Amino acid sequence: MSARGTKIWTGTCVVVTVVALAATLLAWPSMATTRDRAGGEGGEGALTGGLQVESLIGQVEVRQKDGSWKKLETGDVLGEGAVLRTGAFSRGMFRAKDGSKLAVKPNSTVTVAADDESKSRFVIAEGRVAADIPRQESKAYEFSAATGDARAETQGGRFQVVASREGLLGVATESGKVDLVAKGERVTVAAGKQAVALPDAAPSNPVAIPAQVFLRVKWPEGETTEDAVVLTGMTGQGSTLRIGGQTVEVGPDGSFERTLPLKKGENHFSVIAEDLSGRIERVDSPTVVRKDEPQKALKLKVSTEGNIWE
């Protein structure tokens, strides 16, 4: 290469290097701001923590100081005090500094109640969290219902925990072990087992996770003139249920009831249950037809007495 060519090449490399460095310096503050955006309930950037947003599906939000909700973004960090919620068909994946992973499932509200070197504690107002926590030697993870005193404690395992607004807390363990504590009693939910603490009650004895999702629905008759039908059924304790995309309250014993409006003509419904271990079962209704009520014949009574012109 000639001396002139060498100078041109060297100059080009210097320019490219300077441009790349300038771009990096300009981008770095923006990246740092994104990662520190969420904070806790105190407001944007008010708190720092180790629970980072890995991925998001649908509408996943964090509560701000003024009570409003702000959409989370990948890379945001949630600190102690952060309250997050997921919408229907939405979920958030989070990673802690120790490598633990949490998935907050649809229609859930979860608070990061504590986050330090000895304990991470989460309060589930309602909904479901799937956790994959590497074995911890000196740190505990705790998941509790917002109502009542039921809580799940672990130092490592893969499991799902479900809570209801009434205070039910259920655990299904895939690997490791989780202690379910309520009303001063404690049971250990080992791998392949599940247990439930009903509202204001001690935890049940752990049982094997059923081979199939339990879901039974009593369908309405095929034809009706009513403008609504009542759907009833049973599912497993701690299961979550959706009918027509809407979450339906399930009783402590697994029973449910829902009134469904009918349009004229054919109607179809789907019932979807998700059990404690996260498995899903869907059943579809037979066709329900809403028919117009037959019109009654109009009866006229004609009097032959007197003069009709009077």
Keywords:
five-stranded mixed barrel; 26 strands; mainly beta
Element layout with pairings:
Elements: H1 3-35, E1 51-57, E2 60-63, E3 69-71, E4 77-78, E5 83-86, E6 91-95, E7 101-104, E8 109-115, E9 119-133, E10 140-145, E11 151-154, E12 157-163, E13 169-182, E14 185-190, E15 193-197, E16 207-208, E17 215-218, E18 223-224, E19 228-235, E20 240-243, E21 246-248, E22 255-261, E23 265-267, E24 270-274, E25 280-284, E26 288-290
Parallel strand pairs: 9-10, 18-26
Antiparallel strand pairs: 1-4, 1-6, 2-3, 2-5, 5-8, 6-7, 7-9, 8-9, 9-12, 10-11, 11-13, 12-13, 13-14, 13-15, 15-16, 17-19, 19-22, 20-21, 20-24, 23-26, 24-25
Number of helices: 1
Q: Indicate the low-confidence ranges by residue numbers.
A: 1-37, 41-48, 297-304
Order of helices and strands: HEEEEEEEEEEEEEEEEEEEEEEEEEE
Please give the oligomerization state of what you see: single chain
Strand content: 35-45%
Structural class: mainly beta
**Shape by Cα distribution:** globular
**Radius of gyration from CA coordinates:** 29 Å
| Biggest sheet, spatial arrangement of strands | 9-10-11-13-12
**Average pLDDT figure:** 83
The total strand number stands at 26
Q: Roughly what percent helix? A: 10-25%
What's the N-to-C terminus distance? 127 Å
The major β-sheet equals: 5 strands, mixed, barrel
